[in-house]
Amino acid sequence: MTRRLIAMMCAVLTILPAAGAAIIQEVAVESRGVIIQNREFVLACLCVKAGDEIDQRKISRDIKTLLATGRFTFVDTELRKREDGAYTLVYIVEVKPRLEKAVIVHGNDAYSEKKIRGWLELEVGDPVDDAILSRRARKVVDEYHQRFYPDVEITWKLEIDETTGFTTVHLNVKEGEKASVRKAQFAGNTYVEPSGWERFKAGLKNRRALSDTSVPPEDLEEAVSPHLWHIFSFFTHRGVYNEDDLNSDREAIRTLYLNRGYLDVKVGEPVVQPYKPGKLMSTFPITEGRQYRVGTIRMKGAQVFPETNLWAVVRLKTNDLAAMDLIHMNAAALRDYYQSRGYMRASVKPLLQPQSEGAVVDVEFDIAESSLVNIRYIDIRGNTRTKDKVIRRELLVYPGELYDQPRVKRGERILQNLGFFQSATSYPRETLDPAKDDVVYEVEEGKTGNFMVGAGYSSVDDVIGFVELSQGNFDLFNWPYFTGDGQKLRLRTQFGTQTEDYRISFVEPWFLDRKLSLGVDLYDTDLRNLSSYYNQQTLGGAVTLGKPLKGFFQRVNLRYSLEQIDIYGVATNAVQRIQDDAGSHDVSAAKLTFVHDTRDNVFVPTRGSKISVGGRLSGGPLGFETDMYGFEADSSTYVPLWFDHVFNVRAQAEVVSEYGNDSDVHIFDRLYLGGARSLRGFKYRYVSPYEQEQPIGGKTAAMGNLEYSIPITKKIVRFATFYDIGNVWLDAYDFDLSNYCSDIGIGVRFDVPGFPIRLDYAWPLEIAGDDISRTSARFNFWIGYGF
Description:
Structural class: alpha+beta
Number of helices: 14
CATH topology of the largest domain: Porin
Radius of gyration: 37 Å
CATH superfamily of the largest domain: membrane protein fhac: a member of the omp85/tpsb transporter family
Strand order of the largest sheet: 18-19-20-21-22-23-24-25-26-27-28-31-32-33-34-35
Number of domains: 6
Distance between the termini: 64 Å
CATH class of the largest domain: Mainly Beta
Oligomer: single chain
């Protein structure tokens, strides 16, 4: 670019003496270096012609046009006065030579000449010069870096034939040794390992309780781990030696220290050196400085609201660690207080002032209040498939209201959690009225349809296969695309050695444009060889209405189902209870469930709880021939511990009973435990009362699970250990807690989005009754998320 500007300036300076009405008598072309083979091409690109007056702007435009063709390295002009007093305008060009034959590569060993030529992207006949080769060589260097060659060097030589305009390119590659960044160490870290009791107390409170002893090395390692080599690096390219990544690591380390009160911390330039052949280690020099605590806390600038109201949202206390994330979190809480009340442009800046003695820093929150702002209009952008109304109905703010920034941001999270969008962001847009702003929600459509085919091993069916088609943003009336209305459709078939399941599910989350969900299910399930004595086929459908609630229970669901259940293939030696239920049964049932859910993630929670209580009724006022009622309660609590470990406690109880014309609960409504979703040390449906050594199910069941999980790779693989306890009793409301089964085991969770897998191996501990078929350890395989 600099040479182009110089050329244009030279052209202008050359022409200046000829200003006025001077006429160009002739336009000529000369070349430097490589002889130009096609002068007509140059002349065809020019807008200046013989007979024109001298026009500096036209000449400058011609120079730009010639350079833009890519055929010339340099373009200049010269105005020459002839003997007859007229002028000749000469365009002086330096032609780029063309590649005569494929680039010749020297010194390569790890990769072929053909591969390197592909990275260069230079074909025979292409124009080539030092500038082009410099750009293309950088791409070759990048490709080598991605393949863990940090020291690669590329040089080249051009052999130009100035007569023909062709050149031969010799590319010299010095690959160096293959190496990846595999370790990191931290010089200057003064962390002291706390005792087990201190760790336990910190886990019960919060992780910051251990912050008095610097930053744990494992936290530092986790901060830099995204840039360290691991087993999948040939896909992810983690471990590539890269200056930008190292600088990013330095900032991540510094942030960790700032968030533990080390306000003077300095992280120096890392030193990267080999510690084994092909393996590099980066050493980060750290000067921690002093660990500060909070001294005096003040506010200034608060006039609209009493300071007593503002202090109520501040959680920072004198003598707390001066952790930057905690300080900024309190500043954000003050800002949100204003912005949730219409003071959209309010800002809060924390000012830190170290005291003259000791490692103490005073904190002052500087508040700029601004004025009230209302919402004029809500603009939705980027939704190429999803209808506007599907987005607007989920938002928590409306035009005409005061601008409530926290509610705007919560709406952003709601949109993200719909599963329709890759991203959802919001921002204010100022209008001509300073008292009104627009709210802009910008979304990026994501993949909402899935087609999955798979096969595997199940602890229930041995060999299983499945085919599933789902659309999470379905539109029943949008032919031919059927997307955009926020409905959910799922078609699934699963087949195994003992199970066949065909299912269609449809959910309209805003039925009749109200916050009322409508679900429709159609299913045909065939369970073969149950307890080795009979088969059961269920053909039916269900309609579910759901509505959000205010209070402890956040949602209520009412489900009505109509099923035909066929008990067939009953073994001749089956007990009389099973034989009496052989044949077809029509079941009309309703189930009412109340749900409380505070989990941080629906699929892989790490904190919070889910509690559901409900009751169901078959027959009676609902008609048909099966009269049964039941109650159930289920609770799961997740407690986050140290280092992202999670402790899960689950308890479940259920009772069923006959009434009306039925003298007993039918075999298909009785309760069983055992298998991958309950007591994992026991065979599927084999925790049950027995009659003549045959499991017949019971009317009362209770179960508890304790599970401790540890992340192995972040967000993908977890290791778990667990303890299960429970039993099923023959009679309704007969909770005989002294008579129970229990097991202990270990497992692995693969939290792959859309295809999660759970593997468990469990050993029975206590066995209720005397059935010896339940005494051996069991392996369980499950496709799906936890309880």
